[in-house]
Amino acid sequence: MFTFFKRIKTVMSSELNAMLDKAEDPVKMLDQFMREMAEDIREAETAVAKQMANGKMLHKKYQDAEKLVEKRQNQAVKALEAGNEDLAKRALLDKKQHESQATTLKEAWERANKDTDDLRQKLKEMKNEYQEMDLKRDSLKARAETAKTKTKINRSMSSIGSDESRQGFSRMEEKVLRFEAEAETSEDMRSANKSLDDELDALDDKDGVDDELAELKKKLGKE
């Protein structure tokens, strides 16, 4: 369990570049590593809880053995006081057995306590490492997103001014120039037609004035 946790940490710290080289999504991979690390922590918490329960059980058994030792001692005294030496001897023999058991249980309880302390310390270290990796993940995710954005922008910028883009602009420029030329030509034609119409209209107007002037002279006897 703990070995696997350290392997995950190693992958995060030293093999990130290898993942990137393989075109793996670093954000998804980092999230996966964190989920696996969290699972390791849950397993470690379960192991610590079991070890603590085992220590409590051993401690209770040790206390029960100690109480039985004391009980057999008192019973041996009572048997001797009652003049039953054989019963007192049997009580003392049973006392010795329970003393041996108590000694064994005490040693097991002390070892269990030590193992519990070791596991709790390892669990604490795992949680500290998890927090460090969580912060590092946030930093790496931000860097990955920044790198993606930069790459996207650079690709977009690299396409600006490319041969295809320049050719497209040239085609559009040529089309606009053609539109402008057509508009200018149509304007010239309209102006030419208008000038001709104006001259013809002016001619008509002149003829009308001359006729009116002749008529007026005739009336006045000027002719």
From TrEMBL:
Organism listed in the record: Scopulibacillus darangshiensis
PANTHER family per UniProt: MEMBRANE-ASSOCIATED PROTEIN VIPP1, CHLOROPLASTIC (PTHR31088), PHAGE SHOCK PROTEIN A (PTHR31088:SF6)
Protein name: Phage shock protein A (PspA) family protein
Annotated region described as Disordered, given as residue ranges: 143-204
Family label: Belongs to the PspA/Vipp/IM30 family.
Amino acid composition bias (Basic and acidic residues), ranges on this chain: 163-197
